[in-house]
């Protein structure tokens, strides 16, 4: 029974480490009761800004800058 538990733990660890891309920054999967999980940059962002608890590591990609809205002029 002990061998099965140890083997299952090793397989879970290998599955979690092999799924993340090598060049992505490690973030924190932030969980809050009644809200979906959000990937934050750091644990302190999760605790103080979002008010949640860090559950697991995640691949954090910084949000890209949005382009400003451009007006389309009508030809008259």
Describe the structure.
- It is a single chain.
- With 76 residues, the protein is α+β, with helices and mostly antiparallel strands.
- It has a domain at 23-62.
- The protein has 2 helices and 3 strands.
- The chain has a 3-stranded antiparallel sheet, with helices on one face.
- The protein is elongated and about 80 Å long.
Give the helix/strand layout:
Elements lengths: L1 H17 L6 E8 L2 E6 L2 H8 L2 E8 L16
Antiparallel strand pairs: 1-2, 1-3
Which tags fit this structure?
alpha+beta; about 30% strand; three-stranded antiparallel β-sheet; 3 strands; about 35% helix; 2 helices; single chain; about 80 residues
Q: What percentage of the residues does DSSP assign to strands (E)?
A: 25-35%
Number of strands: 3
Strand order of the largest sheet: 2-1-3
**What Rg is obtained from the alpha carbons, in whole angstroms?**
20 Å
Helix content: 25-40%
How far is the N terminus from the C terminus?
A: 81 Å
The total count of helices amounts to 2
**Major sheet summary line:** 3 strands, antiparallel
Give the overall silhouette: elongated
- Order of secondary-structure elements: HEEHE
Q: Mean pLDDT, nearest integer?
A: 76
Structural class of the secondary elements? alpha+beta
Low-pLDDT segments = none
Q: What's the quick description here?
A:
The protein has 76 residues and is α+β, with helices and mostly antiparallel strands.
């Amino acid at each position: 029974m002990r061998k099965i538990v140890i083997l299952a733990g090793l397989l879970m660890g290998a599955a979690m480490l092999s799924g993340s891309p090598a060049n992505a920054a490690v973030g924190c999967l932030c969980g809050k009761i009644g809200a979906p999980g959000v990937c934050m940059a750091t644990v302190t962002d999760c605790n103080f800004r979002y008010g949640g608890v860090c559950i697991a590591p995640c691949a954090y990609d910084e949000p890209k800058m949005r382009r400003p809205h451009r007006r389309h002029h009508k030809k008259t």
